[in-house]
Inverse folding.
């Protein structure tokens, strides 16, 4: 069984064919997906997608949080309200939270200060409710490490779409984090990440799509533009090839890693 540890199945991009997308994922062997939130205005929609599409052979786990690229439209009251959502028993993690210095707008001093405040607040919140975190870090690994030194997350979590330096990867793994591998790993240009995947212990890796974004290179070249959970097999195949192991071994190990992190263990 495969687990997509990061996808946005609730996104509008799936409104017209979500049922078919879910069925293709099941046929590809995806047995569970983690759906991190990004904006308070979509919390209810995320909740209803998780309830509507969880079935016998597919589990959808919601995580609630405020994404760094969306902090601008949120306020202190939203952070207060978040506590009720992440305290619920169906919430498996606090996310998607983090720091983003990629977009020019996100580097504006006021927005950047607010990002750091929201991130640290949500790290503390995760510790208060005893849940792991799902972290987005783009062009901000140094700042991420300093925030995590300031506020250590007791339940660990997943660093989504990891593409940072090798030494940072090892520090994060030592601190109890898993590294999310997705579409970037399938790109010819991702040689540093590919080298990291051959060296890191398999126990540190999870697979993800970030659908509808981060389409694998081969699918992009076919003219496709929307990613979906079924295509997690592209990343699974890449990890298997890089490590010289079977796709089944990649699925078994990475799914066990997600379940261990979220405290959701199945008997199988
Ligand atoms: Zn995401």
């Amino acid at each position: 069984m495969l687990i997509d540890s990061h996808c946005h199945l609730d996104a509008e991009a799936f409104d017209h064919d979500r049922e078919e997308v879910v069925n293709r994922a099941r046929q590809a062997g995806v047995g569970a997906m983690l759906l991190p939130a990004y904006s308070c205005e979509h919390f209810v929609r995320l909740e209803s997608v998780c309830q509507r599409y969880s079935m016998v052979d597919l589990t959808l786990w919601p995580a609630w949080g405020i994404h760094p690229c969306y902090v601008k439209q949120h306020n202190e009251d939203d952070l207060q309200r978040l506590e009720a959502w992440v305290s619920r028993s169906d919430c498996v993690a606090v996310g998607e939270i983090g720091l983003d210095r990629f977009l020019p707008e996100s580097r504006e001093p006021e927005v950047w200060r607010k990002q750091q405040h929201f991130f640290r607040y949500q790290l503390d919140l995760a510790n208060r409710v005893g849940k792991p975190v799902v972290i987005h870090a783009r062009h901000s690994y140094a700042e991420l490490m300093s925030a995590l030194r300031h506020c250590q997350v007791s339940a660990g979590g997943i660093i989504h779409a990891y593409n940072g330096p090798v030494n940072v990867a090892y520090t994060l793994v030592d601190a109890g984090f898993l590294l999310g591998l997705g579409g970037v790993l399938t790109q010819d240009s991702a040689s540093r990440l590919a080298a990291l995947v051959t060296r890191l212990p398999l126990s540190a890796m999870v697979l993800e799509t970030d659908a509808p974004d981060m389409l694998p290179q081969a699918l992009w070249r076919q003219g496709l533009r929307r990613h979906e959970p079924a295509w997690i097999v592209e990343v699974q195949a890449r990890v298997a090839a890089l490590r010289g192991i079977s796709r089944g071994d990649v699925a078994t190990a990475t799914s066990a890693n997600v379940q261990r992190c979220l405290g959701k263990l199945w008997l199988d």
